[in-house]
Design brief:
By secondary structure, the protein is of the alpha/beta class. It folds into two domains: about 170 residues, Rossmann fold (3-Layer(aba) Sandwich), CATH 3.40.50; about 100 residues, UDP-galactose 4-epimerase, domain 1, CATH 3.90.25. Helix content is about 40%, strand content about 15%. Strands 3-2-1-4-5-6-8 form a seven-stranded parallel β-sheet, sandwiched between helices. Strands 7-9 form a two-stranded parallel sheet. Helix 4 links the parallel strand 5 and strand 6. The longest helix is centred in the last third of the chain and has 18 residues. The radius of gyration is 19 Å and the shape is globular. The protein starts with a strand and ends with a helix. The model has no long low-confidence stretch (mean pLDDT about 95). Bound molecules: NADP nicotinamide-adenine-dinucleotide phosphate. NADP nicotinamide-adenine-dinucleotide phosphate binds next to helix 1.
Length: about 270
Amino acid sequence: MIVVTGATGTIGRALIEELGGAARAVVRRAEQGEELAAELGCDYVVGDLERPESIPVEPGDRLFLNSALWPGFARAHQAVIDHAAAAGVAQVVTVSVRGVTPGSLLGFGLHGQVDEHLKSSGVPWSILAPVGFMQNLAGDVDEEGRIVGSYGRGRVGYIDARDIGAVAAVLLRRPVGADAVHELTGPVALTHDEIAAELTRALGRDVRYVDLPVEEAAVHLAERGMPAAAARDLATLMSQLGDGRWATTTTTVTDLLGRPPRSLREFLG
Ligand SMILES: NC(=O)c1ccc[n+]([C@@H]2O[C@H](COP(=O)([O-])OP(=O)(O)OC[C@H]3O[C@@H](n4cnc5c(N)ncnc54)[C@H](OP(=O)(O)O)[C@@H]3O)[C@@H](O)[C@H]2O)c1
């Protein structure tokens, strides 16, 4: 059985759809499970990653471990990995972020901590390590049509998160392969000016990218409601991503799916 956590999320839904419904979705509320079962044909179990014993895994199962981030994310995911190892799960496939370490800023560090734990868990593993998701870009546009950041001219190969679900489906359906980190990107890396131009075309209103030094970007984020320390870390993170570490694209999606990843233009429609 393929057990899918984060089943109501963007990646989880795409994964279950790719599997033709042949999966057990883990949901936090029964109504969510009923909805997924009706829409995608899967079965479901009510469970919560904060209660590892509620994740229904049996010997030989394949586990897709993914969720949104929260402060207890690393502790909870690590406990679920231990639970899966004890249950004799055949493989854990997780979603992390490209290039993270346990010492990375914000949620990137939480992912780094989970990755380290999984690698030493004894369970066969695959870590999906994508760059940023196309799904977030339109939401980054403020009321004045600006995307404010500190990426500079750095390029990022944003990916459609549904392609991550499709990759997970391939890895979970085929015989368990060697442990590996799969770095996932979209087809091309764009500057944020180029992304703003794509959004302008798709949204039918002017969107422009405004690049700010880290200090000023942090003030801007804080003014929009983010706690000051987190705003500073996020602005720093953006400047780090702008240094080119997310500027190369990989062929992993094409290699595994036999088709290229969706472009931003295809995504925006
Ligand atoms: N956004 C990006 O640009 C980006 C880039 C790289 C990596 N990532 C990573 O991608 C992951 C998010 O994937 P996504 O976009 O598919 O997520 P998503 O659409 O935000 O959905 C989050 C899922 O997590 C579930 N969840 C949250 N807390 C849970 C808990 N305690 N127990 C069980 N389920 C829980 C939610 O369930 P409910 O419906 O019950 O809330 C939902 O199914 C994160 O790890 C993020 O760091 C994101």
